[in-house]
Amino acid sequence: MSNIVIPSVLLLWLINFSLVICTSRPIIGVLAQEFSVDDVLYKETKANSYIAASYVKAIESSGARVVPILINQDDFYYKWIMNSINGVVIPGGKAALKPGYPYYDASTIIYKLAKMMNDKGIYFPVYSVCLGFEAMLTIYNNHKLLQIRCDITHENYPLQFARKYSSSLLFSNIPQDVYLHLKYLPSTHNNHEWCTTLRNYTRTNLPKEWSITTMSTSSRGLKFIASIEHKKYPFIGTQFHPEKVSFEWGWGEELNVPHHAAALRANRHFYDVFVKLCKLNNNKFKTEHEEKAALIYNYKPVYPNIKPLFFAQIYVF
């Protein structure tokens, strides 16, 4: 099964009707990231790294379990974890996008191993969100930043769909109401310092390997890439945060996250699609004991009762 090459659109159609599934018990890794020394969460928790619980909840809500992927580990650890799970989410945050920094180095290793697995016929997806989206493009741009400063703070936008969006992994089987919500309503939540413009993107070799699926326009009129995916590998990325819409609240309305029903349904789409993709390989832990020891259930989420409250809960490591 793992060595059969099926076109992406047909693959999603088949899995949507449960005709192609390698596992019904997917486990997805979420990469941790380092705290900066001046981060208030670092000062409160005294931990070295964290994962926002909203990513865990979003994955679990779509029918998968979660394993944290730790930073500052050796190659053996990353090979072991990647061969034991069915996909990876590289989350947003504010870690440095440079070689030599833990989150970026781990992201680089994950993409290298995921590419190798796919080349061997093991369908292994990676979903990168916000900072992860920026890290993904930087890695594939020979570790050179291509983004420009845009300083978008808690803004919500509709999506401008690319002409061939319907042949993409993310949108090939999108329900009509979700498509309309995303196209016409400010349903995607954006909070990022950097944006990838079409001009900067086309100055690189990235268009040879990647396809833009949607664009967004900021309140100041800057048009930037909102979602993208690899032409060969099941690597997808969104500059916006689907997980925040259901699970991040802040104090009052300070985060400006859209919680209306249309936004909730529309943003569920992204993790639902990703979890379906993760069911297309049969990676698993060697033993039940090994699996149980790796799961996020072994950690207790922390409620960082501080202002500004960017995360309702975090896991710390």
Write the layout of secondary structure elements.
Layout: H1 8-16, E1 27-31, E2 33-34, H2 40-45, E3 49-52, H3 53-61, E4 65-69, H4 75-82, E5 87-90, H5 102-119, E6 126-129, H6 131-140, E7 148-157, E8 160-161, H7 176-184, E9 188-195, H8 198-202, E10 210-217, E11 223-230, E12 235-238, H9 242-247, H10 261-278, H11 288-294, E13 314-316
Parallel strand pairs: 1-4, 1-5, 5-6, 6-12
Antiparallel strand pairs: 2-3, 3-13, 7-9, 8-10, 10-11, 11-12
Helix pairs in contact: 4-5, 5-6, 7-10
Q: Helical content, roughly?
A: 25-40%
User: Total strand count, please?
Assistant: 13
Order of helices and strands: HEEHEHEHEHEHEEHEHEEEHHHE
Runs with pLDDT <50, length 5+?
A: none
Question: Reading side by side through the largest sheet, how are the strands ordered?
Answer: 4-1-5-6-12-11-10-8
Task: Tell me the strand percentage band.
Answer: 15-25%
User: Termini distance?
Assistant: 37 Å
Helix count equals 11
Rg measurement, Å = 18 Å
Calculate the mean pLDDT score and round it: 93
Shape: globular
Main beta-sheet strand count, sense and barrel state: 8 strands, mixed
Name the structural class.
alpha/beta
In short:
By secondary structure, the chain is an alpha/beta fold.
